[in-house]
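Researcher: Next entry: Outer membrane protein with beta-barrel domain (Flavobacterium aquicola).
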Amino acid sequence: MKTTEKIKIVMALLVTALFANNTQAQESSSQNYDQGFRLGLGVTGGYAVHDPYKLALGADARLQYDLSKRYSLTLTTGYSRLFVSEADGDDLGFVPAKVGFKAFVWNDQFYIMGEGGAAFVTDPHYHNTSLLLAPSIGYATKYIDISLRYEHYNNLPRWNNDGSLGKGVGQVGLRVAYGFDL
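Model: Predicted structure:
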């Protein structure tokens, strides 16, 4: 199964879960709830699933606007770097810019989130911008946010199984963040 097909399946599951949870969330969760902004500062460590990249490391800032107790809109940016071993070529750095939708699905602490945006490459040897899609699941308290996500960059260079150059890189990452109300 191709990576793009996997991403489509994950996104379809996220949308299905959002609609399945919709009736429960409409009960009285938004009554007397103060809408507002939150800011989260996080670090992400991950594993790149396509050669020549091995590891991923990044830092980000996420602005979150709570629509209700269960639903939020997000805007995330930061800096990420995909690392290669010394013999495999150059590392690749980029600035992600993503918008997203977060839905708490269990006990107001466990959530699913979908983000989309662009990855702006900062390295001089590669100048393309890439579409970025990132579904995730996570756990959040008033101050701590821990999530596991898959990010796919459709236009970043990679090596194919036959040794030729292709496009499309993915990474699985664990994000740990500190968040607070603004």
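Model: Note for the record: The two ends are 43 Å apart (CA to CA).
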